[in-house]
Design brief:
This protein is an all-alpha fold. It has 19 helices and no strands. The longest helix is centred in the N-terminal third of the chain and has 42 residues.
């Protein structure tokens, strides 16, 4: 391996690795409410509807965050928006730890949601736009790795903080420390972003070709830079860049596929478990301390099986992993529902939940974000990704808001709730089998041209 190649690899890994910190903060912010919600509920005397709102409040911010980030990143660049996301995370972490009223808490969480929504759109797009096609799958899954590492460390941090005091201390202060610790990685993210370059494709689209060529040369050499610049120019000459193209032109199909995949990713119930696993295990009769331990195990498995996706996504491809993952999800969620139906808990219930988490972490979790970042045309990728992320976060909000009401409703209960999520996973399997194309090993411009060719053939 030449020194030049080593330098190229280090450059790409650094840029994508720093961007993946946005995923880490996404994961931290997503999971921190898991341990904090029961103590927050006791501290602020919340009813079930307010408890659901506390869990879903960040997602309220995710929706406009995702909606507007695409337009802003297309106009001002991916890097500037990453700085904004990091700042939002830092401000939210501080404000979430010091609220005196429930309304103040909700506004602090909505600010974090703006950061989550924006970063969920910008981070995958940035990684897809800077990574060469031969590494794009593995590097694209770094964003999901950041999310699951954030979730795991948050569950671990929550457990450590929960063990620092008794119930009274946790109700008064523990949840504040859980939420406030987010400031530390947010500040680190801001500092590291100063060394990260702008997206070369965004630069090329904005007539800054010399800068784009320089970055692409650092990515994979001069030959790679020349071929990529030629492909970007050719794609630019064939596309108008109007947002309306997504809804009426050849790119309507990828928008539909992206929207459905985003919906299926969330309605399988993943965030019902990520947000409420402590409540789920406590409801099953395991006790609060054991519930925190079980939640920490979920975080471990989440990380381990994301590495499965990293290892195989560029070798096996996107479709095989999605098919295996959705099939196993269906079985696992059916078993979780059966455990609740028959009153079983403890190790058996934890094993079934872990089976579901394993399947999601190797497929629907990382590959959804990767697929969404790959399939849209260069000129409107940011805005198109915003539409997909907006749909995903609306779906997330619905799941987070309805889970406590479904779970606590005697007419539905946890068994029927998880069987519903299992049915969605089954539909997801059929959808992937019949509709999702393979994108492994293809440049973004080649993927883009696929939709135009299909339209012309029709």
């Amino acid at each position: 391996m030449t020194n030049t190649h080593v330098s190229n690899v280090r450059f790409v890994l650094f840029a994508t690795g720093v961007t993946a910190i946005g995923g880490f903060l996404f994961g931290y912010d997503t999971a921190v409410i898991n341990g904090a919600n029961s103590y927050l509920k006791a501290h602020m005397h919340l009813n079930p509807t307010q408890e659901g709102l506390a869990g879903a409040s960040a997602i309220i911010g995710c929706i406009p965050g995702a909606m507007f980030a695409g337009f802003l990143s297309d106009k001002f660049g991916r890097r500037k928006m990453l700085f904004l996301c990091a700042l939002l995370y830092a401000v939210s972490g501080l404000l979430s730890a010091i609220p005196r009223t429930f309304d103040q808490f909700l506004w602090a969480r909505i600010i974090s949601g703006l950061g989550i929504g924006a970063s969920s759109m910008i981070c995958p797009v940035y990684i897809a736009e800077i990574a060469p096609e031969k590494w794009r799958g593995r590097l694209g899954t770094l964003f999901q790795l950041g999310i699951v590492v954030g979730i795991f460390l948050t569950l671990f941090i929550n457990k450590v903080i929960q063990g620092m005091g008794d119930e009274v201390w946790n109700v008064a202060y523990g949840w504040r420390w859980m939420l406030g610790m987010e400031v530390v990685p947010a500040v680190a993210f801001i500092a590291l972003l100063f060394a990260v370059p702008e997206s070369p494709r965004w630069l090329a689209q904005n007539n800054r070709e010399a800068e784009a060529r320089d970055i692409l040369t650092k990515v994979d050499g001069a030959e790679h830079a020349a071929s990529e610049m030629a492909a970007i120019r050719e794609a630019a000459s064939q596309e108008e860049g109007r947002f309306s193209e997504l809804f009426s032109g050849p790119f309507r199909k990828p928008l539909i596929l992206a929207a459905l995949l985003a919906i299926f990713q969330q309605f399988c119930g993943i965030n019902a478990i990520i947000y409420y696993s402590t409540k789920i295990f406590a409801t099953a009769g395991g006790g609060t301390a054991n519930a925190f331990t079980s939640s920490a195990w979920i975080g471990v498995i989440n990380v381990i099986f994301t590495f499965v996706a990293i290892s195989f996504v560029d070798r096996a491809g996107r479709r095989p992993l999605l098919l295996i993952g959705t099939a196993v999800q269906t079985i696992a969620l059916g078993l979780v529902g059966w455990m609740f139906h028959t009153g079983q808990h403890g190790v058996a219930l934890l094993a079934c939940v872990i089976l579901f988490i394993s399947a999601f972490s190797m497929a629907m979790g990382p590959i959804t974000w990767l697929f969404l970042s790959e399939i849209f045309p260069n000129k409107i990728r940011g805005r198109a990704m915003s539409v997909a992320a907006f749909i995903l976060w609306v779906s997330t909000y619905i799941v987070a808001q309805t889970f406590p009401m479904m779970n606590d409703n005697p007419a539905i209960g946890p068994a029927m709730t998880f069987w519903f999520y299992g049915a969605v996973s089954l539909v997801s399997f059929v959808f992937v089998l019949t509709m999702i194309p393979e994108t492994k090993g293809r440049t973004l411009e080649e993927i883009e041209s696929q939709w135009s060719k299909k339209k012309g053939a029709a």
